[in-house]
Structure formats: structure tokens, C-alpha cells
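In the laboratory, one determines a bound structure by crystallizing the protein with its ligand and collecting diffraction data. In a computational setting the workflow is compressed into a single prediction: the sequence and the ligand go in, and a structural description comes out. We illustrate the idea with S-adenosylmethionine.
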Amino acid sequence: MEIREQVRRRYAESARAVTEGSGCGSGSCCADDSSASAVTSERFGEALYDAEQRGELPDAAVLASLGCGNPVAVAELHEGETVLDLGSGGGIDVILSANRVGPTGTAYGVDMTDEMLALAMRNAVDAGVRNVHFLKGVIEQVPLPAESVDVVISNCVINLSVDKPAVLTEMARVLKPGGRVGVSDVVAEDRLSPDERAERGSYVGCIAGALSRSEYVAGLEAAGFEDVSVEFTHEVADGMHGAIVKAVKTHDPQAKGLPVIQPAASASCC
Ligand SMILES: C[S@@+](CC[C@H](N)C(=O)[O-])C[C@H]1O[C@@H](n2cnc3c(N)ncnc32)[C@H](O)[C@@H]1O
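The predicted complex, in C-alpha cell form:
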């Protein structure tokens, strides 16, 4: 089966488990089933959010948290901004972002899994946020127009993509010049080969598909970002880390010899 379909099925199952109340909370879902444990639950999911943030969220949104960081905490969102969450899952970071940008701002979530989109929409209603839109789509081809977003966030999703250069290019396309990236992801130390990463965990468990730190930096720079940083925050497997990835879309791509992004198709949204 194609990797993307394996990923979709895996997260559809996670969403169903939360919806049916049969578990999959405690942050064990982004990790391999075989490694689900108390330690794993400290490295993925709801434990990465503080009590105040959890208090803003319905229980099902907290339970559905499958991330490896807390991108809303690093993105420094402001009133009135437009935020896009790539791979929004049960909606936790979209809901938190919507509260930060307020009624004059907007938070979009994009996800390819119907069950996750349905869960996220229910969670947004339960949380009482109205300035949110959940879009069905893939993060390699984001269903939003060029230069329409101030901030791109994402939580433990880019490692799951089978075409990471396309994701990074799409991030640059949808961001306004000077727009920011604040992403949490699993990132490997440069010493680990792709095979060594795969020995440490599965693709759908967010380990085997992780970029190394220097691959992340080079990929973002090639896509038109500057001020790129990748900071390891906590180890999730030997030589593999939850990391905060930050970058700024360059104001002047032409001066840097980067492709100039043309305003593209209109959004197929909501
Ligand atoms: C590990 S979960 C993280 C969910 C959410 N960001 C969180 O922190 O709870 C991965 C999510 O990304 C979605 N996803 C994975 N690959 C995707 C792709 N290529 N395009 C769109 N969504 C994708 C899955 O459907 C799933 O909801």
C-alpha cells in the first residue's frame, strides 16, 4: 500500500478511537504502537501543552493531540493574523491559534483525513471558536491562494510527507513576504542515515520519515526562507528529537536568486 494511504488509515483509526471513546489519548498515537508507554506519552501529545492551554480546549481535542511539540507556544501569534496549520488533526492547534488571533484573525487547518476533519470541526464547535476553517487537502498542495497567510504552523506532520520539498515550497507560496514558520516536528541528528532512522521507528509513527537537521535547514533555504533555525527540545528515540523549526519567508526572492511566486488559484475552502 502507498505510504500516504498507510498514513491516512493510521490517523483515521486514531480519530475514530477518540470519537468512539476507545482510547488513543495520552499522546501514544504518533508513536509506534509497540513503543506506547508512559515515557512515550511524555514525548508526544497532550503532555506538551500547559494546563492553561488545555483549559481552553474540549476534552476530545486534548485527547486527539498527536503532536511532538507545541507550535502555538513558539509562533508568537498576534491579533488579526491569519494562521495555517498543516495536518491539523483533531484541531488542537487551530483552536488555540484562533483564540490567539481573535475575532479579527483567522485560523485554517488542512488535513487529508475525513475522520480527523470531522473531529476537528466538532471540537471547534465545542470550544466555541468561530474564526476557524478546516480544509480537506494535502499539505503538498495546499488549497489556499498564494501570499494569503501570516504564519504557518504544523505539529508532527511534515515527517509524514512523502514529498517534503513540495511541502516546504507550498509553505513559501502561501505565506506573505516576511511571513513566519513555527513548526514542531521530529528531526534526526545529522549522523543518522535514512536506514538508521527507519530502524528507530515506523513511517506512520513519525520516526522513519524524519528529516535530519541539515536537510531541514537546506530544504527551507532552497524554498525561499531565511533566519532558519532547528532547535532540539526532547529526544524521542536514539538520535531523534522533537524539535522547533523556525524560519521567515524572504522579502525579496529575486535578489536571492529564488523563484518568484505567482499569485495562484483561488481557495477552495470550507
Ligand atoms: C501525527 S498527526 C498530528 C495531528 C495534529 N497536528 C496534532 O498535533 O495533534 C498527523 C496528522 O496529519 C495528517 N496528515 C499526514 N500527512 C498528511 C498530508 N500529506 N496531507 C495532509 N494531511 C496529512 C493526518 O491525517 C493526521 O491528522
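Residues 17 and 158 are 23 Å apart (CA to CA). Keep in mind that any predicted model is a hypothesis to be tested, not a measurement.
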